[in-house]
Amino acid sequence: MPLAKVNGLNINYEVIGNEGPWVTLITGGRRGYSEFVPLAKKIAACGFHVLMHDRRNTGASDTSFDGTEVEESVWADDLYELLNQLGGLPAFIGGSSSGARTAIMFGLRHPDSARGLLLFRVTGGAFAAERLPESYYNQFIRMAEAGGMEAICADPQYAERIAANPATGEILRNMDPNDFIAALTKWRDLFVSGKDLPVFGVTEAELNSMKMPVIIIPGNDKIHDSRAGRIVHEMIPGSKLHQLPIEDQDLDLVPFEEWTPHEPEITSVFTEFMSNH
Question: What is the DSSP code string of 218-248?
Fold first, then answer.
């Protein structure tokens, strides 16, 4: 897949479709973009350019531990620069989970470049506030403290990134564990400082200030509590809410793969929304 030099890093990306407005799909967690390829193809077939990319520190893109802001803010700025290079601005910015948080940050930081936001599986609530810092940061801090960078490189999540981009392995193996721990501690503290807000790191006033069209599809597990989606809908003026025919489940996480049967409906809802704006 092609690479673009974005803010000093190689960012792996793919564009599906060759006509119509631009739209992005941003995955959640620390996963690469591949899980969204089937949905991207469906949306592109309706007359859209669909950009997918591996955010820095995910997938086959480069790794950097220099961030001084929450990762979602840095990812939003990287996405803006990538879209600018591709001639894709303004664009509809879509994302799930941490991708939804990135889309919201994009809308706040680059409002004139967001034609609209497509948010699904929004994270929020007490359970997610406890679970995500552990998942993203704390477990790896403990791992580095106990086993150094060899333990980090052997972890399945990091091993997958190293396989996708060998340069990531070189960076990690040559890194002082104390520097790695310091970087993740900084990100964790920034993340935790906003954990009690309606969306992590985003205030009610910021959500109230958003003027671009927004549509929200709530999640259905304990991390992607459906109430979080409804709260965001209530706080963003004029936003639209679409409820899939799914029920909330008493599970930490419902894998996105279980939403595959709903991709035709998601495609219809998102493309109609974009066509109207």
Answer: ---SSSB-HHHHHHHHHHSTT-EE---S---
CB 82 within 8 A of CB 13: yes
Instruction: Give the type of residue at 174.
Output: N
Label residue 17 left, alpha or beta by phi (over 0 means left) and psi (-120 to 50 means alpha): left
The CATH number assigned to the domain holding 110 equals: 3.40.50.1820
The pTM (predicted TM-score) of the whole model is 0.96
What are the contacts of 261-267 at 24+ separation with CB within 8 A? 263/38, 263/39, 263/42, 264/42, 266/39, 266/120, 266/217, 267/39, 267/42, 267/43, 267/46
Q: Which domain holds residue 156?
A: 129-191
- For the stretch 175-190, what's the b/e string if a residue is b when 16 or more beta carbons lie within 10 angstroms of its beta carbon? bebeebbebbebbbeb
In whole angstroms, what is the distance from residue 200 CA to residue 275 CA? 30
At 108-117, the pLDDT tens digits run 999 999 999 9
For 196, counting Cβ atoms within 10 Å of its Cβ (0-12 exposed, 13-18 middle, 19+ buried), the class is exposed
